[in-house]
Predict the 3D structure of the following.
Amino acid sequence: MSLVVVGSMAFDAIETPFGKSDKIIGGAATYIAWCASNFCKVNQISVVGGDFPKSELDALAARGVSFEGLQIKENEKSFFWSGKYHLDMNSRDTLVTELNVLANFEPVVPESYQGCEFLMLGNLDPKVQRSVIEQLRTKPKLIVLDTMNFWMDIMMDEVLKTISMVDVLVINDSEARQLSGDNSLVRAAKKILTMGPKYLVIKKGEHGALLFHENEVFFAPALPLEEVFDPTGAGDTFAGGFVAHLAKTNDISFENMKTAIVLGSAMASFCVEKFGTQRLQELKNGDINDRLNQFKQLSNFEIALV
Ligand code: AMP
């Protein structure tokens, strides 16, 4: 099934307690595309400056990613984000956010993307995310949205307006608390499910992810890894795996979303093993299935009821 992905394509600079990267390629939609293109065709909507390496776009295009919806502003600079991780590698501070080309991005949905069945709204200005929904002449079967504290801090009203139009919201635990104003994640989920989305995924970094729908909850662990090198993009990779599995199977049942959560977690576990998108780029035949098997072993148990 066809998947349209919207989000930032960027330069990132990452600091962890163990090392520092130079300016590397990042951006929410970049991670989503690297991940989702393992499973289905990706139609990208984004914007970059003239400084964004063409080789990066070519590498994604070689995996079947369409860039008809990409705007290249030759005389402007790409979005730049810099972050510093704390010792636990689970939390981070944003050091710099330079919107550059994102500041006045007006996406245009190409004719060939019309009729898409799955829409992944990666982290971006909520007005831009909404504009894409509004340009689609037929409502997709499923709209998934990811956002972050940056947008909640500066335009919460716009975030609320946009999330009221989507089916699945994917955010992390601190963003769920910020959005709902409630510290309990279960109560936060209940509140958020009254804001529009029918499904809510709360990512908890190395502590896994929760899926909420009506009165049901599902939990999937994250793979315990000996070394987490760079968690940047893990959330986007997770979202990319989640939506791509649903698009590939064309099944949006709660049961299938559980599998999608596990697949997203497996893909995210690759992402954190190296800086940037490097590990996702190196995936070989069989790697994904091997990791899915590890996930099965991790949480599969039998119990005799007392
Ligand atoms: P994640 O680690 O999954 O939360 O995503 C990190 C990616 O999000 C980085 O590659 C950044 O380039 C991108 N990013 C950070 N801040 C923003 C923002 N305000 N809007 C869009 N993308 C962002």
